Amino acid sequence: MKNRITPDNITSLQPNEIFVFGSNVKGRHGKGAAKTAMQWGAKYGQGEGLQGRTYGIPTIQSPGIQNKISIERIKPYINRFIEFAKNHPELTFLVTEIGCGLAYHTVKEIAPLFKEAVAIENIHLPAHFWHKLKLGKDKE
User: Fold this and answer.
1) Per-residue pLDDT of the chain (140 residues; tens, 9 = 90+)
2) Rounded CA gap, 88 and 54, in Å?
3) How high is the pLDDT of residue 137?
């Protein structure tokens, strides 16, 4: 677990690393981690999937709190991401605290969606997600 913690502030990527960020369905990468992802190839207009050296997971319908996506609707996006990561063991996926910023979800809500990722060696998760998944404690 300790060697699979996503850094809090990612400023560069190794050649095999993929920056995993929360996006909006319409792919308007204007704020937060989505805006950061633009420097590594996130495509404006693409909300989900591999984009350059990034991978988008939608957590909001479109910019604005009134448009956040429910946990039930986020889960399939995360499941597709986990399946993608399983099929690409040559890549290391650095998952940011998706859904916990502009989408206004909590770590307590989002972290359990990554339960299956615990067993996948090439998926790195934020420390707060690990804390919730491994210890069952909230650290929001």
Assistant:
1) 668 999 999 999 999 999 999 999 999 988 889 999 999 999 999 999 999 999 999 999 876 556 789 999 999 999 999 999 999 999 999 999 999 988 889 999 999 999 999 999 999 999 999 999 986 544 43
2) 13
3) 46
d(CA 27, CA 60): 10
DSSP conformation class of 138: -
Topology (CATH level 3) of domain 2-9+18-135: Leucine Aminopeptidase, subunit E; domain 1 (3.40.220)
Structure tokens at 86: 């399983």
Both tokens of residue 20?
């995993």
Give strand ranges (E) for 25-108.
49-51, 54-60, 92-95
What is the C-alpha to C-alpha distance for residues 8 and 126, in angstroms, rounded to an integer? 7
Q: Which of 86, 27, 83, 87 is nearest to 54 (CA)?
A: 27
Domain boundary assignment for the chain: 2-9+18-135
CA separation, residue 86 to residues 25, 90, 92, 99, 119 (Å)? 23, 10, 10, 22, 10
